[in-house]
Amino acid sequence: MTIKSRLILLLSTVLVAAFAATSLVNYAVSRSAALKELTTSALPLTRDTIYSEILKSLMQPLHVSSLMANDNFLKEWTQRGEQDEGQVQRFLDGIHKKYGYFSTFFVSAKTSRYYHYNGVLKTVSKEDAHDVWYYTFANSGMEYDLDVDANQAANNTLTIFINFRVQDTAGRLLGVTGVGLELKAVADIIRTTQATYLRRIYLVDPRGVIQAHMDTSLVEQVNIHDQPGIGKVARMILDAGKDHVDLSYENEDGVTQLTSRYIPELNWFLIVEQNERDVLGAARKNLMTTLGVGAAASLIIIVIVVLAVNYFQGRLEFLAMHDELTGCLNRRSLDHFFQRAVSRHGRQGRDFAAVAMDVDRFKEINDKFGHLTGDEALKAVANIVRANIRPMDALFRFGGDEFLLLAECTAGEAAALVERLQHSLHTRSSSLPCGPLRVSCGVAMYAPGMTLDTLLAQADAAMYAEKEQGKNAC
Which of 50, 132, 379, 469 has its C-alpha lying 20 to 30 A from 460's C-alpha? Predict the structure, then answer.
């Protein structure tokens, strides 16, 4: 692997690692912030909001049930011996129509009759499992109670009954009255709130049995003690009493954060929970986006770096092999081209010559017209020579005003080339401030076994001989 490849690989690794590390750190910070916001703010706020909503939905039924239990008509009618059943039926029906409750009822402690707004529903009995609630409540001494049970007057629809004790002035039990709310109505409250806050919400009694849930099939059927994950913390929820608790549990769906609050009006516990996966979805999406953008940015940067490295490497290689002023090959590259010419001569028998060139009067040009004009003169020589040679020929600048040409040609072709260069230099450099340029040339033909130094020495000797004789071969 080349140094350039290693450099690009190292840079790519650093960029990718940096973007990945930054993205992961950002995700970790976002995750921590999201979970902190969920457990310290979002869940408690949702819990308290739902608590208020539930209380608001139950306060009126509780208040109406309380008014029914303290209504003098109901007490006096009961104490008179329940003689006109139509009176209590109209009483219950009036409340039903006014408030739209699912059920309104009164159960007499004396006759055990269950009065409904549609008439006498039944006579309650200790032997009837549906009537256990009445005897349990009557013996509890509580002022009121909430109970989820099947409404026998409405095809056994699950109903939340708000039961209030009816007593005479001496505190003796006259019966139990109240209203019934269809459990579906409470489920609708939970469903609406759950859709708004995107969190699971349900109510459980002190035993852990679900009493209200968006899925009514779970009501009175599922105990949180028996559920995977939450079963491990169910006791902590139910033992908290009036204190709210913030907990987490893990099951096959991942980690779930929950908060709970006791509702004394219902003697139930409100549970609000949310799976961390739902909360962290945005953070994960942001991580994927960041990684995608980082990968794209890294790729673009790497491509730019590769192009830049290739450009500057090519530029450095060019400068290492070429003269910066004239663009000619420099002396460092001469050995490579010489070996190539020798190889072609050996394989294909192609002759080649070395033509040494020196600009006449160059010191005088510099002294009289300045170094800028001297530089222009050198560039003009290079351009004119390149315009008159073939692509396989190579022009070198040795420094100062000295040039060398390696050309594939015979001795006769070399002489013709020198003559062509003489004409071109004379005609095409006449516009320079220093006037037409002249170049002294010396030609040496390569012979098998000849070294580069020998060939250059012969070409230089021929060129200096021309200068000594005051001639101009070009």
Answer: 379
Is 241 contained in some domain? no
Last residue of a domain, one of 164, 184, 204: 184
- The set of catalytic residues is 401
**Exposure string (b/e) for 332-358, b if CB count within 10 Å is 16 or more?**
ebbeebbeebbeebeeeeebbbbbbbb
Predicted pLDDT at 157: 62
- In 373-438 the beta strands, taken as DSSP E runs, fall at 394-399, 402-408
Residue 109 lies in a domain: yes
Range of the domain at 85: 70-184
- Identify the three-state secondary structure at position 222: coil
Residues 88 and 121: their CA atoms lie apart, in Å, by 13
Instruction: Please name the residue that has the structure tokens 């779930």.
Output: 256
Contact 260, 269 (CB under 8 A): yes
Helical ranges in 352-410 per DSSP H: 362-369, 371-387
- DSSP letter at 128? -
Whole-prediction pTM value?
0.51
Q: What is the 3-state secondary structure (H, E, C) of 279-335?
A: HCHHHHHHHHHHHHHHHHHHHHHHHHHHHHHHHHHHHHHHHHHECCCCCCECHHHHH
State the DSSP H helix or E strand holding residue 65, giving kind and residue range, or none if neither: helix 43-69
| Radius of gyration of the chain from its Cα atoms, rounded to whole angstroms | 52
Is 448 a domain residue? yes
Long-range contacts of 207-216 (CB under 8 A, 24+ apart): 207/238, 208/234, 208/237, 208/238, 211/148, 211/160, 211/266, 211/268, 212/148, 212/160, 212/183, 212/186, 212/187, 212/268, 213/187, 214/187, 214/190, 215/187, 216/158, 216/183, 216/184, 216/187
193 pLDDT higher than 90: no
**How many whole angstroms separate alpha carbon 275 and alpha carbon 199?**
8
Quick one: DSSP state of residue 260? E
Mean pLDDT of 205-217: 86
Is residue 230 situated within a structural domain? Answer: no
Report residue 150: phi and psi, to 5°: -75, 135
Domain containing residue 416: CATH number:
3.30.70.270
CATH assignment of the domain containing 80: 3.30.450.20
Which of 158, 184, 210 is a domain's end point? Answer: 184
* pLDDT, mean over the chain: 87
Q: In this model, does residue 58 exceed pLDDT 90? A: no
| Residue 235 banded pLDDT, cuts 50, 70, 90 | very high
Burial of residue 36 (CB within 10 Å: 0-12, 13-18, 19+) is exposed
Number of domains in the chain: 2
The neighbouring-strand residues paired with 147 are 161
On whether the CB atoms of residues 187 and 214 are closer than 8 A, the answer is: yes
